[in-house]
Amino acid sequence: MIDIDYLNFLENILTDNRKEKFLKVLETRTKHFTIAVEDIFQMHNTSAVMRSCEVFGIQELNVIEQRYGKSIDKEIAMGAQKWVDINTFDSITNCVDTLKDKGYQIIATTPHEGDCLMDDFDISKPSALFFGTERDGLSEEILKRADGFLKIPMVGFTESLNISVSAAIIIQNLTSRLRKTNIDWHLSDDEILEKRLAWAKNSIKDIKRIETRYFIDNPKSVL
Fold first, then answer.
1. Do the beta carbons of residue 26 and residue 56 sit within 8 Å?
2. Is 212 annotated as a binding residue?
3. Per DSSP, what are the bridge partners of residue 34?
4. For 17, 19, 104, 213, which has the most beta carbons within 10 A of its beta carbon?
5. What would the pLDDT profile of 17-73 be if each residue is shown by its tens digit?
6. CB 35 within 8 Å of CB 127
7. How far is CA 75 from CA 71, 79, 81, 84, in A?
8. pTM for the model
9. Within 13 Å of residue 154, how many CA atoms lie on the same side as its CB?
10. Taking a C-beta distance cutoff of 8 angstroms, is the pair 37, 61 a contact?
11. Residue 89: beta bridge partners?
């Protein structure tokens, strides 16, 4: 449960423009779609995918680190890590199970028998869109457990795109279509409060000192 008094305290430190920007951005955020990347060897590609999530309003990025335990490239992410929730998993199984338990269908973004072109994809169902490695594509486990397959229509000689480019194209297409529907794709009221608190904390320098002082002065408050 969010401590509203604490949230108000932090937001009073922010400028009015900052607070208004938070509310405006949160109106466009969604968890209807979530993105998952699998063992990306070149970490700058994960950072670029995260940036696309932030720009096009996807709130959560799921990163499987089964083989390569690398950190987000903050320079390429350009601050997106402050606004997008990063969920890390140590195995494919754990990631897929968790997303299925949350109600997502698993969609593998790869050409496959029975695949669906991007513009024909049914956006009504909450979907976790999986992107594979640059070198090997998606693993067999994800392909076997996928509920569907999605591909970008291509008309040239080249049969594949860099993962960060593919993710940007698909995320932009699906989120743009989603916002034109009557589907309930917005964050819940509780999720919006959680993000307001997290973003306020991410925006305030020396937040640890301010936070410590607040709870000393308000011992009955809880995070």
1. no
2. no
3. 128
4. 104
5. 999 999 999 999 999 999 999 866 566 778 889 999 999 999 999 988 755 455 554
6. no
7. 12, 8, 10, 15
8. 0.88
9. 14
10. yes
11. 64
